[in-house]
Structure formats: C-alpha cells, structure tokens
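Please go through the protein record below and explain what the tokens say about the fold. Record follows.
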Amino acid sequence: MNRAIDEAVGGWRVSGDAILYSGFPENVTSPNNANLNAPTSRANRYGKMKIVGRNNNNWWGTDPTAAPCQGSPTAPGANTACAYGYEVEAAIEHRPPLDWEHQRQIRSAPRAIALSICPLLSIPTVKGEKLEFRVDAFNAFNMASYAAPSLSTSAFSGTVGASPSMITYNAGNTWGKITGTVSPARQFQFAVHYKF
C-alpha cells in the first residue's frame, strides 16, 4: 500500500453481522375456548384473507376478508366474506370451515432486520506494541423491527362498508394493530485496548 494512503487509512478493520427474519409465523386466535384446557383456541378458517392497504395500524389490511366473522352469517348486514372467526353453530352450518383443525401459524408477523457494525483502528506504537480503538454499533442504522400484531378475532372493532367494500376500523380496534417492536434502539459500545 502507498505510504501516504497507509498513513491515512491504514490500521482499520471492519466487521459486522446481520440478522434477517422474513416474519415469524403466527396463529389467529378465538375467544371460544369451550372444552379446552388452554386459555385460547385457534380460530376457524372460512376463506382466504386478501391483504389490501396494509400498515402498522391494520396489518391485515382493509379488505372485507380481513374482518373476523361475527355472529350468524345469515343476519342482516353480516360480513360473508370473512376469512376467520370463532366457532358459531350457525356459521358452520351456513359456511363450513376450510379445514376443521386449520393449519397452524398460517399468518406472518412483520420481518425483522438487525445490522451491527464494528470498526477497529490499530495504531502501532513502539517495539511491536499496538494501541487499538474499537466501536461496537448494535442496530447501527436504528432500524425498527415490529412485533406481531394483535391476533385475536375478539379484538376487532369496526364496520364493513358495502360501497366501497372495505373495513372502517373504530378507534378502539386492536385487531391487526402493531403496538411494539422486537428490536432494541441503536446502542454503542467503546473500547480501548493496548497490546504489549
């Protein structure tokens, strides 16, 4: 290396690591836990959910299929396009589930990304000894990785409009709402090391 360049940038080393998740699989749950020892049960799956207009406030979107089935599907104004709902006898008779014990963890949470960088500068001193400066930057770009949204059908609060055919969520709705992160804020760690 050219001496001038070596004096300017020599002695530097950079390492890092990356953690990437495409999104953890999740279960849609139901408030109907009759005859179960567990506090929750998986919701019945009546159709395919279509994701339209997804954001952190409504991760499942605004398509009518994203609104959970509620009550009897034969009631006036009932949402017959719903993809998930709890076990209601009238609903099962009118529209049987796609599979009684539907596939587990069919929905996905947001992806997660964590990038960390560690630059290290080594400066020669005397008799082969070195002075090293190191910085560990965890989540170096301060990227937010969001937690899973609310997955309980009982958390839905809103209406399904006929025209345009989309969901209008009420202020108290938490169904499909993301309220937290799984990544820490950016953090720095500094170190000085003298090798002799």
In short: The longest strand covers residues 112-124. The mean pLDDT is 80. The radius of gyration is 26 Å.
